[in-house]
Structures are given as C-alpha cells and as structure tokens.
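chain below, 67 aa
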Amino acid sequence: MLQAFDMSDHYETVSYWYNGYLFGDTVIYNPWSVLNYIDNEGEAKPYWVNTAGTEIIERLATRAEKN
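prediction:
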C-alpha cells in the first residue's frame, strides 16, 4: 500500500507504530491503520482505537439461549 501511494519511505514508521502480525513468513499490518495513516498524510496514531463497538456482543448475548 505504501508503495502504491508513493510512501515507501514511511515503512519504518508504519512498522514501528502498527507492529504487524506474522503469518508464516509474511508480515501483515492492520489495513485500517495503514489506510488511515496514508489518508492522513503520514500522521501516525492509534487509528484502531474505537473502531468497533459492543453492539454485536450485546445482540448475541441477548439472543443466546440459556442452558
């Protein structure tokens, strides 16, 4: 993604801030964080914070059958 947006020189910052996940021999970074980093012209911050609510958990909990 960084290469596509001519931001390859930002790799070290993205790597430091978003500490990728290792899948086999490949490091994968959170696409939400990287997209927001690019969209905000290289401003590194925790974009993943507050990206999800608890609505799905609440819905599942209220629909669950008691055993």
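The longest helix spans residues 31-39. The chain is about 40% helix and 10% strand.
thats it, cya
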